Each structure stands twice: as C-alpha cells, then as structure tokens.
Amino acid sequence: MKKVNTKIAFLGILATLTFGTVATSCSKNDDNNGYEQPAQGSIEAAAGTYKGKLYTSDTNGVYEWFDAIVIVTKEGSNQLKITAKSGEEYSHITPKTFTVETCACFGENTQDIVSLTGSLEGIFHYYGSNKNIHVSTAEQSATDVWFNFEGVKQ
C-alpha cells in the first residue's frame, strides 16, 4: 500500500506543477509596471514573397536551390498558404495551407506567427523581428512533394 500512496502523491505533485506551468506560461502580464504592452500581431505580416534556400528529396537524391522564391498568401482569418514561384525547377513542390496563430508566448516578441501544434501539414514559423520564415512540410498523400524552406521577406 505504501508504494501506491507514494505513487499517487508523486502524480499529484507532478500534475500540480504541470498545471501551474501551463497556466502561467502564456498568460497576459497584467502587471506592466506602467508600460504599455505591445499589440499582438496579425497574420498579414507574414504574407509576401520570400527568397532563400529550398530543399527536397526523392528516390534519386537530395535537391537544393539557393535564391529560391516562395509566396505566402493569406487564405482566411487564420490560414496562410505557401507556394513556389511558378516556372522554376522547384515549382513542383506541393503548396501547403497552414492554420496559424500569433502568440504572446514568445517573450516580448509578439510578431511571431506559427502553425498550430500538431499540424499535419508540417511546421510554419514567421519570425517577426527579422521577417524570416522557416517552413518544413509533411507529405499527406503519395503525390505530395515535401520541402524545407528558410528565407527572408523581400
């Protein structure tokens, strides 16, 4: 019986610590010491044309393109779509639409825009401080061509 009680006590303490961390990690700071908090960004900031490194692979090897161009467009109130510039060697990559959010969970930089955790499309991250994006897509069908892209807004 002592092992069960110890185990229950340990799980209770662990649950309390986890809840406390989650409850405070992304909460609004009401005590701003007289300073106005920065406004949370909007997803429009991530829309635009980006230039950078794109790579993908298939059964024949790994392919890299430097100075690749991708376009990010707003597709809804919380969706961004990324597509490759048409007419390029890499234009065959599969366009992806990400459900995204802005979050004040990144310290003082509220300009970041990220895909929702667990997104089946992959990962989208817009770094508002330097206007860079990092995208890593996932295959969702046999015909999808996955890719990774890192670039800066033009």
Could you please describe the fold and organization of this structure?
- The protein is α+β, with helices and mostly antiparallel strands and 154 residues long.
- 16% of the residues lie in helices and 40% in strands.
- The chain contains one helix and eight strands, in the order αββββββββ.
- Strands 1-2-3-4-5-6-7-8 form an eight-stranded antiparallel barrel.
- The radius of gyration is 20 Å and the shape is globular.
- The protein starts with a helix and ends with a strand.
- The relative contact order is 0.18.
- Residues 1-5 and 17-39 have low confidence and may be disordered.
Task: Note the topology.
Blueprint lengths: L1 H24 L22 E11 L2 E16 L2 E6 L11 E7 L10 E3 L6 E6 L4 E6 L10 E6 L1
Antiparallel strand pairs: 1-2, 1-8, 2-3, 3-4, 4-5, 5-6, 6-7, 7-8
Total strands: 8
Number of helices: 1
Tell me the major beta sheet. Answer: 8 strands, antiparallel, barrel
Radius of gyration: 20 Å
Query: What is the general shape?
Result: globular
Distance between the termini: 65 Å
* Class inferred from helices and paired strands: alpha+beta
- Helix amount, in percent? 10-25%
| Averaged pLDDT | 80
Largest sheet strand order = 1-2-3-4-5-6-7-8
Question: What oligomerization state is this entry in?
Answer: single chain
Name the helix and strand elements from N-terminus to C-terminus, one letter apiece. Answer: HEEEEEEEE
Low-confidence stretches: 1-5, 17-39
Query: How much strand?
Result: 35-45%
Please describe the structure with a list of short key phrases separated by commas or semicolons.
8 strands, disordered N terminus, alpha+beta
